[in-house]
Specification:
By secondary structure, the chain is of the alpha+beta class. It has helices at about 1-15, 45, 50-70, and strands at about 35-40, 85, 90-100, 100-110. The radius of gyration is 15 Å and the shape is globular.
């Protein structure tokens, strides 16, 4: 698995992708053209929010945003994070919480070329 991972990283760099390791929750992700990315920095302790409630609010915000454009999306899918239209993922959540402060956040696919996701596990 480690060898395969290293080969994929080399391939990505050769075709022009930048690869960054960051300390946040979630799996591998992609950020690129056509995405709406929001990284809210929030003091969760001041708001009395736990991690799960915060993630659910981020999902709700993406669902409401999609709804403004006539797209019926849903969050809070058992066993999954993010926002979904049917079985297709419309938006991802990946947060880090340290000392009650959030960083990182959401990526909502708007006009994203989804072929980029062939390199990630979804």
């Amino acid at each position: 698995m480690v060898i395969t991972h290293c080969i994929i990283l080399q391939e990505l760099r050769q075709i022009g992708y930048e690869v960054h390791n960051v300390p946040r929750g979630g799996e591998t992700t992609f950020h690129g053209p056509g995405q709406l990315v929001a990284y809210p920095i929030v003091n969760l302790r001041q708001l009395g929010l736990g991690a799960r409630a915060f993630v659910e609010r981020l999902e709700d915000a993406m669902v409401q945003t999609a709804g403004c454009f006539g797209i019926q999306a849903r969050g809070r899918v058992p066993g999954k994070t993010g926002v979904w239209v049917g079985e297709r993922k419309l938006g991802a959540v990946g947060v880090r919480i340290s000392n009650g402060i959030s960083s990182h956040g959401v990526a909502l696919n708007v006009t994203t070329d989804v072929s980029h996701y062939r390199w990630t596990r979804q």
